[in-house]
Amino acid sequence: MAMMMMKPINLHFSDLKKLRNPYPNSRPQHARSPNSLLIRKSLETNHSLLEPSQEFARSLIHEFNPHIPIEEALTPPSSWYTSPSFHSLELNQVFFRGWQAVGCTEQIQEANSFFTGRIGNIEYVVCRDENGKLRAFHNVCRHHASLLASGSGKGSCFVCPYHGWTYGLNGALLKASRITGIKNFNVKEFGLVPLRVAIWGPFILLDLEKDKFDEHDDVGMEWLGSTSEILSTNGVDTSLSYLCRREYTIECNWKVFCDNYLDGGYHVPFAHKDLASGLKLDSYSTTVYEKVSIQRCDGDEDFDRLGSKSLYAFIYPNFMVWALDGHKSVIFDYFLDASLKDDEAFVTGSLKDSEQVQMEDITLCESVQRGLESPAYGSGRYAPMVEKAMHHFHCLLHQDLIN
């Protein structure tokens, strides 16, 4: 195995600023620390502001029926891809629950290193403390809510840029400036609010629903189910070395990009002619697991950078791996097998091939988004022989949205 890239889909939406509460009252209750309860109380105060739009969004869920066989089923309606309130509902029901891939171990290899990110309106920071322990927190100062850290880097503590409150990399409040005269203030209750964080293979995962990770938890089974061993066997493991990162801004709903990845190679001969020339598309197959779908395709052995076999894994809701025998690629984070680290021609050619595919897919996805916003389109149909993974994705999404 040579190169692998991962593709998490960042969440962007024009109406995102209207989302105020990532924890609606309907969510399961969990035991939380005083820190969590303090923040939860403030979030619930704003819950009423969401109710009208959320009720409308919930009404849209039932416009898709997951129980109709794929041969007869309609795709989800265009409103699932265009409604701001529906996107807010997805954040609450999908992205703020369960494991989400947010980075890779290369970003925090050393003690005192950190990186930050955002999922919806959840700002987070992932770090290794001075003892090398992996930790994650809401990236929000407990004083007046300023973002605490930015970007990535190294440091022995986090100092708020607003009023100088200082936190250790274990989350403890170390210094609260100019609070002489304050009453009923317990410093232990004003540490950073923790998030559940774990590592699987080269990936760092966050669970925004829970705040603690039990060392006995089986992250592989929780996140990947029965495909954990399949992906490990196909080289998605800690033996990969980090190569580089590329980020793309695409003017489309996140599901449009997922749908594009899950059409069973349907679009490849039409949109990716160079890629298609190295694949034996008649060999394309799709297998659906619990919350993962895997597409496979044989390649032309004469096409060096594609190798002889490929595997396309989609991990619900938005994480994708394109693995090829000889080359593994998906966008954003690129990893390289140690045996090829000095093969500059291979790396350059692979990155060039990937860039071409991504630009072709961006054109497709932005075109689809414009079509979804047209009054001429309501719902579409599935191609049953190739779009099983897409249908599976829509059914999983529907299941999360109604819970």
Automatic annotation (TrEMBL):
Catalytic activity, reaction form: choline + 2 reduced [2Fe-2S]-[ferredoxin] + O2 + 2 H(+) = betaine aldehyde hydrate + 2 oxidized [2Fe-2S]-[ferredoxin] + H2O
> What would be one Pfam family of this protein?
Rieske
Q: Which UniProt keywords apply?
A: 2Fe-2S, Iron, Iron-sulfur, Metal-binding, Oxidoreductase, Transit peptide
Tree of life domain: Eukaryota
Under InterPro entries, the record lists: Rieske_2Fe-2S, Rieske_2Fe-2S_sf, Ring_hydroxy_dOase_asu_C_dom, Rng_hydr_dOase-A
- Ranges for domain Rieske come to 99-206
Question: Where's it found, cell-wise?
Answer: Plastid, Chloroplast stroma
Top EC category: oxidoreductase
Q: Looking at the UniProt record for this protein, which Gene Ontology cellular component terms does it annotate, in alphabetical order?
A: chloroplast stroma
Enzyme Commission number:
1.14.15.7
Metabolic or biological pathway, per its Swiss-Prot or TrEMBL entry = Amine and polyamine biosynthesis; betaine biosynthesis via choline pathway; betaine aldehyde from choline (monooxygenase route): step 1/1
From the Swiss-Prot or TrEMBL record, what is one GO molecular function term? 2 iron, 2 sulfur cluster binding
Q: What is its main location?
A: plastid
Cofactors demanded by this protein: [2Fe-2S] cluster; Fe cation
The function of this protein is: Catalyzes the first step of the osmoprotectant glycine betaine synthesis.
Instruction: Write out the similarity annotation.
Output: Belongs to the choline monooxygenase family.
- The name under which this protein is listed is Choline monooxygenase, chloroplastic
Organism from which the protein derives = Lactuca sativa
